[in-house]
Amino acid sequence: MTAAEKKSIAGFLDTTSDFLSSGYKTGQNDYDFTDDALTTASQEVSLSRDSTSCKTDSIEQIADEIRRCKNCPLGMTRKNAAPGEGSLQPLVMVIGEGPGAEEDAQGRPFVGRAGQLLDKMLEAINLSRNSNCFIANVVKCRPPNNRDPYPEETSACAYFLERQIALLKPRFILAAGRIAAQTLLKTTEPIGKLRGNFRELTAGNMTLPFLATYHPAALLRNEDLKRPAWEDLKLLRSMLDKEKTG
Fold first, then answer.
1. Predicted confidence band of residue 72 (pLDDT cuts 50, 70, 90)
2. Are 229 and 124 in contact, with CB atoms under 8 Å apart?
3. Which tens digits make up the pLDDT trace of 89-130?
């Protein structure tokens, strides 16, 4: 286990202890943890990678591994992991940030208010998780209080997402929101600069057309973002149509 993972767990335990004893947060102790040379969790990751071959891997197998995963602190605070769902031969793979409260309760991605809006957005350009899209997230378990996932948490989930992309072989990747776009492109640029045009995303031995747009939750908070998001969707539909006729 890394020092960052240990500190995250210790902070969670401190907060829990404060709540149970007095109901007030007294502040986190300044722990001085170090990385372990090799822990059970990292051994599990290594064994999983060594024992999984492209010939025998499957979306169902990945989902089962995700549901059993304890490779980061989110595995200890979640109710249900949300591995992903949709077409196994998708035109578009939609990748968001991570599960929220409804997703954590149901074990499915994008099923809350933002997910309902996402379904309507996709439907507007003739896309659907029921026929030609696969929906996933960069982290498969809900971060407490819907905070941004920590880098060590996105790193722990990256292997699952990479395998999903390799198996599904989508024609296009649509990143929903800042966290997904920054994580996939390995950048800190704001979403306003990342959206609006296609980029190339290298995933394994594939190079895929990649488009970022605003997260549906952001559209629910700020209606001014709906027009640029609609422009992004029209751009995606235009590229899909060009590929179809080309």
1. very high
2. no
3. 999 999 999 999 999 999 999 999 999 999 999 999 999 999
Domains of the chain: 1-37 (no CATH), 40-245 (3.40.470.10)
CA atoms within 13 A on the CB side of 101: 3
Question: Please, which pLDDT band fits residue 56 given cuts at 50, 70 and 90?
Answer: confident
Question: What dihedral do alpha carbons 174, 179, 184, 190 form, nearest 10°?
Answer: 90
Matching residue, tokens 């995303």: 201
How far apart CA 44 and CA 96 sit, in angstroms, is 26
CA distance 113 to 173: 22
Q: What is the DSSP string of the chain?
A: --HHHHHHHHHHHHHHHHHHHTSS------------SS-HHHHHHHHHHHH--TTT--HHHHHHHHHH--SSTHHHH-SS----EE-SS-SEEEEES---HHHHHHT-SS-SHHHHHHHHHHHTTT--TTTTEEEEESSSSPPGGGPPPPHHHHHHHHHHHHHHHHHH--SEEEEESHHHHHHHHT----HHHHSSS-EEEEETTEEEEEEEE--HHHHHH-GGGHHHHHHHHHHHHHHHHHHHH-
The label of the residue with tokens 């198996």 reads 167
Confidence category of residue 244, pLDDT binned at 50, 70, 90 = confident
Predicted pLDDT of residue 70: 95
